[in-house]
Amino acid sequence: KAQEPILPCLPPNGSDDRIPRISKETLLAVLDGQYSDRISQQRIVDCRFDYEYDGGHIDGAVKSNNQLLFVNNLFDSPIDGRVILVFYCEYSVLRAPKMAQYVRSRDRTRNIEEYPNLTYPDVYVLDGGYSAFFPKYQDRCSPPYYITMKNKQHSRARRQGLERLRARR
Fold first, then answer.
1. Contact (Cβ atoms closer than 8 angstroms) between residue 22 and residue 126
2. 47 is a catalytic site residue
3. EC (predicted)?
């Protein structure tokens, strides 16, 4: 039987990816250990481009903007116990939902014989992304800065990153 979500989720936002969204307050509660009695581990995944991550990210987040590499690592060495995966990008509109959906799709394929069971049933997207989290909780970001995707100093890296993103569609 499919497991119920551990984290409180926001109402569906009309996106077609069907990945549940969590609030920045819920993510903060996760970071503060308020769900440690129900989860073995959390993996917070920053799906932004390298320069955005390097300019500031949520404490404990891992950088991953390569779907295939991330998924291969995730399934080559599965994490024991109940694990939550929280994905975010600048606004959590494209890159994070796309990565989360890719993880869910690969998980479904790997567990086709065990439907509806999944290796990672608790996949979430941070509603509003880093742009919503940073202004309120910049003390929980390392370093405590915010480099936007459209930062002019990184226009070449942005263009290359967007080309890679489009190529994966």
1. yes
2. no
3. 3.1.3.48
